[in-house]
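Data availability (excerpt). The following record was deposited with the supplementary files.
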Amino acid sequence: MNIYISGLSYNINDADLNELFTEYGEVSASRVINDRETGRSRGFGFVEMPNDADGQKAIEDLNGAEYDSKVITVSVAHPRTERPPFGGNRNRGNNGGFRRNNGSGGNNGGFGRY
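Predicted structure:
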């Protein structure tokens, strides 16, 4: 079972997560996600537990619990969905966000004002 943990203190590391969840059963992997540029924790992480019953018990007991002076949220991790590059289509239609002015509009090259 893959478990998602958010609301983590920035002081928490992989070993801390492993230790917290080991109280509920075997942990096959634990990882706090860090910012690529700064290396600082982003405040969330994942734990993999091979036994689903142990994972479910950990979720029930730890969701909403205080850990390192912060209230954490613990839930089943869902697969990441693919996002279009650069934020995707923002409903600009086929004209890329510009409004046509039918060629009349002086020196604006045929593009109207917003």
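Summary of structural features: The chain has a mean pLDDT of 85.
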